[in-house]
Recover the amino acids of this structure.
């Protein structure tokens, strides 16, 4: 049973990934990524990480992807010219990435970490529950928790500054229309 | 004050004089420059006398002192000092050099008066005297080389004194290049000496040499031959002599000081100083003697046909130095040095008188155009005759005693050395003939037009200034001779100098009369005491016999000249027609210049051209350009990586990461 | 399922994300591919966390998600700024930093 769900989720994830890379229209890429994220959430559930799965769906697919959708709608999405201006980039890119995948797989499959070949230890009932994660966050990992919230703040401020419209008095080049 | 302190002062005064005149060349009035220059050398002469007095007050065996001011380099077995060596030989040279130099400075004070480069002249002249004194007083081979090189430079600077004259600058370069060849020989000799004996100091070298070297061992012969290369280049002996006649492009006081009395005698001094080494290498000494003899004869024959007054006297110098070299090589050390001294007196005098004549001729030097000056310029003529008599070794003059002493010694040594005596007398005959040829061409007869002008009006003739060698017109601006000319009769400084020298030329021989007073030999004895050759002393009778023969030859020579130029003035032209080929050969100076051109100059130029066309272009340029191309190629490869595309940077990043992972995979397994 | 399946899947997703970055030219899509890679990392973290029996990996994955969110925010802000200045939205045309 578990294997079936795993393969379904895996195919969904891979399909979504390939969709992101291959689709010409950026909007379709975003949708493919959303599908990919849902598949990943399923995989997380299989790994008894309930909270992470939920966070994946709510935060990632729910908030971050919506942000993407907004921007794609604003910016629009054109196709890209077919030919690649950099000589050999396409071929080399695929080649190098395949080599990377092969190496990583070789590392994992032939590794001396015998534990990889197992299912993992039996875990207690509350493994991966929000309560357990929450306790960890506020007790052991309080500092990273607070630091990441400050990071979020900085990122938000930075984004606002970046996307700000230029004021009238400053000299501008290629200023956009009233937006 | 000790002798060495006086010797340091001797070095100091000319140096200070040279620098003072050079620094003040804009501010000092010209007379002051001349006075400072003369006074500096005069002071040096007085210090030389003081050193002499100090030396004479000591025991003859103890009359050698080395004194050092400063260590240049004391590392790893090398010990080079700024040190001088004071002994009878160096004091003798100091006195000759400073004495004659003082008189020449006095002469130049008047002679160079209208020249724009007056300050430069005296500065260079003082510097020259300083270098010569440094050479003579040096206590080790390194300082000798320093003095030697400085003298070469001073000679160059003074030959090319009228630097806008092309002939003068070419002559200066020729002299310098040939001198450098000699310098190489000297430096190599010094290196070999250091390698074999481990020291540069004179005292140590001459003490160790007899212990380290066997007679005629190839190292000591090589050292002596290299020293000879240096000596011959400096003293204008065959085959390095071609620069001396051309050096007459310099002003007459320069010719008189450098190319008669002092610089060209440096080679003689060198051989006398290193006589210990030459005693150990008789082969080299004999080679030197033969070269001296050959030069003597070759130069004598050329002087017979020279029509340029200064060049004729220059060949005479070359010939007389051949005598000196011959003398010190075969062992007649004090005789050779005595001849050096007397020659300095009468040769300087001859040049001074020649300068006076040339001034009267408005800077023309050809004796074909001169005649009748005996009436026009009495004082100059008398002094000229005094010098000529001494040069021709007329009985009683200084040249008489000195030249014949060398030849008597040659006879006393016997065996092969009799050749030197016989050919030496033949050379003396030639000397008498060519000397009085000059006298009888210039002095008697109907006055030429310049002489006539002098007699009639008392003013010097003036013409457009021309280069005497090429006839080009010149202006009298800086770098060319000045507008006015000065003759002895009108310039008291010149008169005094020439008068003193005439007196010395006539009577200085009386200090070394065989059997009577031999002061020079006794004075120089301690220096040469270690040489077995110095023990060969001709008997008084043999000396006087030699003097008698010499007197006869001298009178015969003067007689021949009289016959050819006074009694039968048409004879010389007839002789030239009859022996035309010989005349051409002699006028072209035995074709030595052409020989050197073919043997040395052309191959050197060809090598240079070859090096430029092939070696420079392919090897050197190839290396440099090749390196440049390689670097440029490598950098263009790197340049292509920096194309600004983020994606290619990302590709490199991920490829690197993959490579790293591969490395770790391999290492782990 | 053995854990190694999850890890290999994570490696595959990572490689696909890498290909996307190298091949696509639109900054939007490149950011999306970056998300792919980050999520592949997340998957690996959670898988290892399950295998070790420790929940720290999951906390790590949460923090990674936060960081991904920040990065997306800033990246999209950049894209909007580029669009506003009427510059071409093509990574190849933005190459002022060439050597």
């Amino acid at each position: 049973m578990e294997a079936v769900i795993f393969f379904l989720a895996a195919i969904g994830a891979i399909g979504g990934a390939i969709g992101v890379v291959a689709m010409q229209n950026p909007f379709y890429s975003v949708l493919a990524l959303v599908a990919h994220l849902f598949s990943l959430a399923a995989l997380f559930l299989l790994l008894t990480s309930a909270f992470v799965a939920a966070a994946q769906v709510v935060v990632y697919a729910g908030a971050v992807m919506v942000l993407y959708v907004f921007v794609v709608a604003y910016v629009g999405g054109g196709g890209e010219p077919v030919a690649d201006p950099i000589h050999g980039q396409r071929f080399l890119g695929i080649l190098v990435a395949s080599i990377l995948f092969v190496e990583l797989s070789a590392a994992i499959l032939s590794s001396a970490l015998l534990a990889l070949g197992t299912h993992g230890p039996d875990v207690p009932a509350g493994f991966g529950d929000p309560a357990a994660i929450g306790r960890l966050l506020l007790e052991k990992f309080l500092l990273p928790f607070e630091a990441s919230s400050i990071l979020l703040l900085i990122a938000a401020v930075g984004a606002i500054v970046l996307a700000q419209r230029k004021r009238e008095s400053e000299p501008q080049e290629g200023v956009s229309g009233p937006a | 004050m000790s002798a060495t302190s006086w010797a340091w002062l001797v070095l100091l005064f000319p140096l200070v004089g040279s620098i003072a005149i050079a620094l003040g060349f804009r501010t000092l009035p010209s007379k002051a420059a001349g006075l400072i220059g003369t006074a500096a050398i005069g002071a040096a002469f007085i210090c030389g006398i003081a050193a002499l007095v100090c030396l004479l007050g000591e025991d003859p065996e103890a009359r050698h002192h080395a004194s050092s001011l400063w260590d240049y380099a004391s590392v790893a077995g090398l010990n080079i000092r700024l040190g001088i060596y004071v002994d009878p030989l160096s004091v003798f040279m100091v006195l000759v050099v400073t004495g004659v130099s003082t008189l020449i400075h006095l002469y130049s004070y008047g002679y160079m008066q209208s020249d724009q480069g007056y300050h430069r002249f005296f500065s260079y002249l003082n510097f020259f005297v300083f270098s010569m004194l440094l050479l003579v007083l040096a206590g080790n081979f390194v300082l000798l080389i320093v003095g030697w090189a400085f003298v070469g430079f001073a000679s160059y600077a003074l030959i090319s004194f009228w630097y806008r004259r092309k002939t003068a600058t070419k002559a200066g370069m020729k002299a310098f290049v040939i001198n450098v060849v000699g310098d190489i020989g000297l430096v190599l000799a010094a290196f070999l000496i250091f390698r074999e004996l481990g020291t540069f100091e004179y005292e140590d070298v001459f003490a160790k040499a007899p212990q380290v070297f066997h007679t005629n061992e190839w190292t000591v012969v090589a050292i002596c031959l290299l020293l000879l290369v240096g000596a011959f280049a400096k003293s204008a002996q065959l085959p390095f002599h071609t620069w001396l006649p051309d050096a007459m492009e310099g002003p007459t006081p320069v010719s008189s000081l450098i190319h008669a009395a002092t610089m060209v005698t440096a080679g003689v001094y060198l051989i006398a100083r290193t006589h210990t080494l030459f005693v150990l290498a008789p082969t080299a000494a004999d080679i030197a003697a033969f070269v001296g003899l050959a030069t003597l004869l070759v130069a004598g024959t050329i002087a017979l046909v020279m029509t340029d007054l200064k060049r004729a006297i220059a060949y005479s110098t070359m010939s007389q130095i051949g005598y000196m070299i011959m003398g010190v090589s075969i062992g007649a050390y004090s005789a050779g040095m005595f001849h050096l001294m007397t020659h300095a007196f009468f040769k300087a005098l001859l040049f001074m008188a020649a300068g006076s004549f040339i001034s009267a001729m408005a800077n023309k030097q050809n004796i074909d155009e001169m005649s009748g000056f005996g009436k026009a310029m009495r004082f100059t003529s008398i002094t000229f005759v005094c010098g000529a008599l001494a040069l021709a070794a007329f009985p009683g003059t200084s040249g008489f005693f000195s030249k014949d002493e060398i030849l008597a010694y040659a006879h006393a040594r016997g065996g092969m050395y009799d050749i030197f005596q016989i050919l030496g007398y033949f050379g003396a005959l030639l000397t008498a003939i060519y000397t009085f040829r000059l006298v009888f061409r210039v002095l008697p007869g109907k006055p030429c037009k310049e002489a006539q002008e002098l007699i009639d009006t008392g003013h010097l003739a003036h013409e457009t200034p021309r280069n005497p060698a090429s006839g080009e017109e010149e202006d009298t601006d800086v770098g060319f001779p000045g507008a006015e000319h000065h003759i002895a009769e009108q310039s008291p400084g010149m008169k005094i100098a020439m008068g003193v020298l005439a007196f010395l030329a006539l009577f200085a021989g009386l200090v070394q009369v065989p059997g009577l007073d031999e002061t020079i030999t006794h004075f120089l004895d301690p220096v040469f005491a270690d040489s077995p050759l110095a023990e060969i002393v001709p008997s008084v009778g043999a000396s006087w016999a030699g003097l008698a023969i010499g007197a006869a030859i001298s009178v015969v020579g003067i007689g021949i000249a009289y016959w050819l130029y006074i009694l039968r003035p048409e004879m010389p032209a007839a002789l030239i027609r009859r022996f035309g080929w010989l005349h051409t050969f002699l006028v072209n100076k035995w074709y030595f210049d052409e020989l050197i051109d073919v043997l040395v100059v052309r191959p050197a130029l060809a090598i240079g051209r070859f090096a430029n066309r092939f070696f420079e272009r392919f090897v050197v340029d190839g290396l440099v350009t090749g390196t440049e191309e390689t670097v440029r190629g490598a950098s263009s490869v790197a340049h292509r990586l920096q194309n600004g595309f983020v994606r290619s940077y990302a590709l490199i990043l991920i490829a690197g990461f993959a490579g790293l992972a591969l490395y770790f995979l391999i290492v782990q397994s | 399922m053995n854990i190694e399946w999850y890890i290999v899947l994570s490696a595959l997703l990572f490689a696909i994300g890498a290909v996307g970055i190298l091949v696509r030219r639109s900054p939007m899509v490149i950011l999306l591919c970056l998300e792919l890679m980050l999520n592949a990392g997340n998957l690996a973290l959670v898988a290892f966390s399950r295998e070790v029996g420790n929940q720290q990996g999951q906390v790590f994955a949460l923090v990674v998600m936060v960081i991904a969110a920040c990065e997306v925010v800033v990246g999209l802000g950049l894209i909007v700024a580029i669009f506003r200045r009427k510059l071409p939205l093509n990574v190849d045309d933005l190459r002022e930093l060439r050597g």
Observations:
- Chain A has six helices and no strands.
- The mean pLDDT of chain A is 85.
